[in-house]
Amino acid sequence: MKNAERRIAQRKSVDPIEVAELTSLQHYKVLARAGQIIDASTSGLLMSLTRKDLIPKELRDNLSLKELLGQHVVMYLPQMNLDLDGTITRADHVGRGVFEIGIRFSDDVPLYWRECLVDLLPEPGEFAEEETE
Hints:
Layout: H1 2-6, E1 12-24, E2 29-40, E3 44-50, H2 57-60, E4 72-77, E5 82-95, E6 98-105, H3 111-120, H4 126-132
Antiparallel strand pairs: 1-2, 1-4, 2-3, 3-6, 4-5, 5-6
């Protein structure tokens, strides 16, 4: 049931959205100084970050971020002046020092708000098209 539950929401690839300071609310420490949201749905976000952006030495020195699973985190999106929080549901090393982290929105975030957020996130190339017109 859990796998089916994860894929109910339609995914949307987005132009990379800058993330500043991914912070653990359980340990009150910054986990990463930067990252990018690369995919979004009404259930959560997929974030990409590099090893050099990880702050704790024990995370930088590892090929696995599995210890982050289940942690409640908050991130700041400077382009939107927005704080988002959620729970890390997956953390995979995809190669060459790049990690993908899946974050499920907190249960207290209303569905209509999540739908509006996903609609507002730019699709790949959306900003480039506007600049050339």
